[in-house]
Write a structure and sequence with these properties.
With 720 residues, the protein is an alpha/beta fold. The protein has 28 helices and 10 strands. Strands 3-2-1-4-5-10-9-6-7-8 form a 10-stranded mixed beta sheet, with helices on both faces. α7 (127-138) packs antiparallel against α9 (157-184) and α15 (337-347) packs antiparallel against α17.
């Protein structure tokens, strides 16, 4: 027994050495620190950093910085940069790239301009030491980015330009670092510059040309292997980080570029994106934050007035430089105070890049111990300030979005939208479900409903069970993207009438249908199912023929008829297409007349849509299919139609699917039938229309058929 307790005490000897115990302790810290500190209104990020300080070598010495912690810390840092690149709204970034460049210039030049004279004249360091320390002020690590993601404001323009500016500043600083080190070693010659330029060019070519093509091939060939997608993404991130290091820049730049390279292939609402964020935010990023706290040595402030002066000076200069850059950005672009605060919060935290610069400078004997210790204090203070500032700003922006009476979401009350997917062909459901997830309003309380209508015959009960079993698999698929999906199975003599009835029962706002197919004689006799659904439901309907994964499309080409803006459902379908474009990070080409263009442009501004919309004037509806010249093979072709009696209805809408298949056979296609009337009007006008006579006729035909089959069976038995 004594031996047992002796061995047990050895396991708890500080610092801990048992890897299982270390991992367990870190997991408990990740779990408990945000919960405990939340009651004190302290952001979870700060809780993790403080926890790292307490258990680290400069605190209670429970944990030491070993290779395992360094590995997980590196993964967490790369994760932060990768997610920042992945979540960047590329349409918004492209539209505001000049703003990103200007902010990048501000947040680089002003901290550098302020920091160099302070270090050179006030702290009395040499030229190389002063320049290197001042360049450290220009860096920033997106430590507070998880806060932005949590509050759902990652698509805000202020976030886009800040993240865009990050890559510019950190790259510039790391190049300065390489130059200073080369200068101190006497290697700053022509060969140095040629090697740096060539390596960066090769790295960029691999990441932006080769990697996306490989990713497209992988996601297409292994579309059903969802877990393999995540492993592939991780492989790309670390490979990119390695390539960046080989090219002469920090691995964090490679991770960020990997996010940009895969940006269009991983929509924010996809199951893959949810897995990436979940694992990162649950494990790897907290590890990094704890490791940041472990390097902080509070005792440096007691090592004499010189260390305290240096630490205080570095902290004040760094924070003031970032605040001034945020202020200038606000004034130039007329941002709100909340956006300015958000820019400052995201750009003020110093961690990875800062530490990399200082450690390299310290090892090269360019910087002394006071600069090193002062920088460590700066990291702690800046991370705390950044977290509080970012969380406060994010809350303000969310409140502004919710309280704005002109906000589209409030005007149109999409929070209660209900999407219905009637399934005829089980093979098409996956892409119809993916499309529905992408266009679904995230705050909507209603689930996506998948409907299967089973024919009313003697095998109806068995067929219902089979349908439910098959559809439950897709419910699991949707749950991976945190989207609630329900399965509805019903019996009806006519599938179209069953769909129409259920859509009214659940008060569906949107119906997503598969592409119509001519299946047999019965369809010819009673009319196309789709036509029957359109005639008996007046909600916005999307008829989809998605030939390949949505992420492989380069553009959404929408053709809208004259007077389309007068339809009741115009705002809904236009917003949904803009949301889809945003998810896929692709632009919209809207082909319509000038009146529709003006209305769509006003709606986009009013609704704060971030999708890039390019207008193409088109009015030659007498020769409609000339529009095919403007449509490219990788476009998602969308045609806005109308039901008979609608303001925008045209005779050419008759027999539309076959016409589109002829002229746009290689394109994915969506035909939209907007809601024609208001909810009340449609209910009052069409509530009395029922398919009862048709259903009774079909029931009679089915009974006669079964009777004939049974009679033939009896005759066969008699012959036997």
């Amino acid at each position: 027994m004594k031996l047992f307790f002796t061995q047990l005490m050895l396991e708890f000897k500080l610092p801990l050495e048992n890897p299982v115990l270390i991992f367990s302790l870190i997991l408990f810290i990740i779990l408990l620190s945000p919960i405990l500190l939340r009651k004190l209104n302290i952001p979870g990020i700060i809780g993790l950093i403080i926890s790292g300080l307490i258990v680290g070598p400069y605190g209670l010495n429970i944990l030491e910085k070993n290779s395992a912690i360094d590995l997980f810390s590196t993964i967490g840092l790369l994760y932060i940069m990768f997610i920042a690149g992945l979540e960047l709204d590329m349409n918004q970034f492209k539209a505001n790239r000049n703003k990103s460049f200007l902010f990048g210039f501000f947040t680089f030049i002003f901290p550098l301009s302020i920091g160099f004279p302070v270090c050179y004249y006030f702290l009395e360091y040499g030229f190389n030491a002063s320049l290197l320390t001042a360049s450290m002020f220009a860096t920033h690590t997106l430590v507070a980015y998880p806060i932005v993601s949590k509050f759902g404001v990652s698509k805000n323009q202020a976030v886009a330009i800040t993240v865009g500016g990050t890559i510019l500043t950190d790259t510039a600083v790391l190049i300065i670092l390489a130059v200073i080190i080369g200068n101190s070693q006497g290697n700053l010659n022509q060969d140095f510059w040629i090697k740096l330029i060539i390596s960066l060019a090769v790295f960029s070519a691999i990441m932006f040309f080769i990697i996306p093509k490989i990713a497209k091939w992988f996601f297409t060939k292994l579309e059903s292997e969802k877990h393999s997608h995540y492993i592939f993404v991780l492989s790309v991130v670390f490979f990119a980080a390695f390539l960046a290091e080989v090219a002469g820049v920090e691995p964090i730049i490679g991770a960020f570029v990997a996010g940009l390279a895969l940006n269009k292939l991983i929509p924010s609402s996809s199951a893959l994106m949810n897995r990436i964020e979940f694992i990162g935010n649950s494990l790897f990023i907290p590890f990094f934050l704890i490791s940041v706290g472990m390097i902080v040595d509070i005792s440096v402030i007691t090592k004499g007035p010189e260390a305290l002066i240096v630490a205080g000076t570095l902290t004040v200069v760094a924070l003031f430089g970032k605040w001034f850059a945020a202020l200038l950005t606000q004034l130039f672009f007329k941002y709100s105070s909340a956006q300015r605060q958000l820019i400052f919060g995201l750009s003020s935290s110093h961690a990875a890049a800062t530490l990399a610069v200082i450690l390299v400078g310290f090892k090269a004997e360019i910087l002394d111990e006071n600069i090193l210790n002062g920088t460590i204090i700066l990291i702690l203070v800046s991370c705390i300030v950044a977290s509080f500032a970012t969380e406060k700003a994010a809350k303000k922006i969310v409140i502004e979005m919710d309280d704005n009476p002109d906000d589209f979401k409030n005007v149109n009350s999409f929070s209660n939208e209900h999407i219905l997917i009637p399934i005829a062909n089980i093979e098409s459901i996956e892409r119809l479900l993916e499309f529905s997830i992408f266009i679904k309003e995230k705050k909507a309380v209603n689930p996506i409903s998948i409907l299967s209508v089973v024919s009313n015959n003697h095998e109806a009960e068995i067929n219902i069970l089979k349908a439910r079993k098959k559809l439950e698999e897709f419910v699991k698929q949707a749950s991976a993207s945190e989207t609630k999906v329900t399965v509805i199975t019903t019996i009806d003599f006519n599938k179209a009438s069953g769909i129409s009835r259920i859509s009214r029962e659940i008060m569906a706002d949107i119906i997503v249908l598969g592409w119509p197919k001519h299946s047999g004689l019965l369809d010819k006799l009673v009319g196309e199912k789709v036509d029957s659904i359109l005639n008996n439901t007046y909600k916005t309907t999307f008829i989809c023929n998605i030939e390949k994964p949505l992420v492989l499309h380069k553009r959404i080409a929408i053709v809208a008829p004259p007077l389309a803006e007068h339809e009741n459902g115009f705002d809904l379908w236009f917003t949904k297409m803009a949301k889809l474009a945003q998810e896929l990070s692709i632009p919209i080409l809207l082909c319509c007349n000038e009146t529709t263009q003006n209305y769509a442009n006003k709606l986009a501004k009013k609704s704060r849509l971030t999708a890039l919309i390019v207008f193409y004037s088109f009015e030659d509806w007498g020769d409609f299919f000339t529009i095919s010249k403007a449509i490219k093979i990788n476009d998602l072709f969308v045609l806005v139609c109308a039901r008979k009696g609608a303001a925008s209805y045209m005779n050419m809408f008759e027999n539309l699917p076959s016409k589109l298949e002829k002229h746009f056979d290689k394109n994915s296609k969506i035909v939209i039938y907007p809601q024609q009337f208001s909810q009340r009007y449609s209910n009052e006008r069409y509530n009395n229309i029922t398919p009862e006579p048709l259903s009774k006729g079909i029931e009679t035909i089915q009974k006669i058929g079964r009777g004939i089959v049974n009679l033939l069976k009896n005759d066969d038995n008699k012959n036997l």
